[in-house]
Every structure is written in structure tokens, then in C-alpha cells.
What does this fold into?
Amino acid sequence: MRQTKEIIIGLSTFVALISFIWGYNFLKGKNVFTQKRDYYAFYEHVHGLEVGRPVTINGFKIGQVTDITFDASFGGKLLVDFHISEPMEFSSDSKVQIYDMDIMGAKGVELIIGSNTELATPGDTLVGEIKISLTEQVTKQFVPIKDGTEKLISVLDSTLKSITLLTNKASELIEANHTSITNAAGNIDTLAEALNNQRKDFEIVISNLKKFSSDLVDSDIDQTVKQVGLTMKNFDSILQEIQLGEGSLGKLVKDAELYTGMTKSMTQLEALLKDMREHPKRYVHFSMFGKKESPVDTIK
It folds into this structure.
């Protein structure tokens, strides 16, 4: 009976120890009862990847991350150890990509099958890469907007400062010229009052202008213009006749002998008139006794 109890205690201790080992490894992402094949990948940065995170292919879980260590021998890179429990084969150029599992940023590992014919064997080190996260994508899209917004705010701030400065200058100018502005406003009021007083005169002038325009429209302007044109044509014809020496005036202008004779006759007429003024008795006299007339000198 005593031996039975010892056997039971021993078996219980063994089962508890096995359960503890299995639970500890399970919490670390290892399943001691499942056949596994370990693989490795190096990363510059794991972006929050933790032990126990799933390894998937096209969204299907095929393994877990078992360990993450800092390896100084490879330039300070992080070595990620993961095992694959599913019975599958893949090429040696396959990539192990860290990606965002959800919008909260939980990280997982995805196996991307390569095209090489050479198959990977357990213990191989595969190529590790980082898939840009949604947060990083939003950040990259937001950075140009942020920069543009900052520039816009800077421009707006500068514009507001300029407007404020201009407003202050305008206020100072108005205050300095308050008297002049007041006088100018008074003069404008006076001018407006004077114009208002002369409103009737302006109305009369405008009425006269309207009447003049109406009379001008009603008058026969075309006939007047035609008459003026006809007169100018006749005047031009007279000038042409004079230029050709036709007519009395044309002959007077063009005929040199006629012009000389007329000039000589005018000279003699002027001398005769002068002699009549100086010696009127030679030409006009009265004789009550029948006196004989004295001979008149011939004008040369």
C-alpha cells in the first residue's frame, strides 16, 4: 500500500514536471510535442516584434517566433529565431517579412515563397525584410501635408504681421492728418451743398443740350454739307480758270502786256488826279465876262 502511494506521488511529480516544461515552452511559443524546423533571419530593427508571434503564409499560421537575440558578431543586428510546424517545403530565397497584424500595430512574421529551385533546410538563415506599416504609410503621406501646412502658417503669420503693421501706419497717418481730413470732409460737404444749390442751373443746361442735340438731328445737315461741297467745287473751278489764264481775271493774271498796260494807265490816272488837285483852275473855271481859257498843259 505504501509503495502504491509512492508510485502515485512519483507519477504526479513527473506529470507536473512535464506539464511545467510544456507550459513554459508553450508560453515561449514552442510546442515540444510537435515536430518543428527552426529557421533564422537578421533584421536591423524588428519594430516591436515579440516572441510567440505567429509565422504565417498567405494569412495561414505555420509556426511561431521562438527567440529574438542581439548578435554583435553580425554588426549589431537582431537575430530572429522561428520554427515552422507545418509539413511544407519552400525555396532558399524565400523572404521573412515583418508586418502589421492589426491597426493597433501588433507585429507578425509572414513567409514569402521565393522562386529558386533550391529548397531551404532547417537551420538556414533566410532574408529578413520589413513591410511598411499603415502608420508609416500615413506618416509618409502626412509629412508633405505637414510641411505645406507649416509653410502656409508661416506665410499667413507674415501676412498678418504686414497687415497689422499697415493698419498701425494707417492709424498713425489718420491721426496725424486728422485736422486736414476733417477740413477736407467739410469742403466736400460745402461743395456738395453748392452743387445741390446749382441743381436747377444744371438741369437747364442739360435741357438746352438736349434741345440743341434734337435740333441738330432735325436739321438737314446732309444738304448743307452737299452745298458746301458744291461751293468748294465751284471755287476750285475758278482757281483752275485763273491758273489757265481763262476769263478776265485769268487774263489779267496771265497776260503780261495787259497787266503792263493797266499798270501804265493807273499811273497816268494817278498823275492826272494829282494835277487836278494841285491846279483845279486849269480844268474848272467860271468867266462872267467871257474870258478866254488858258491853255491846259499836256500831262506827260
Summary: The longest strand covers residues 60-71. DSSP finds seven helices and seven strands in the chain.
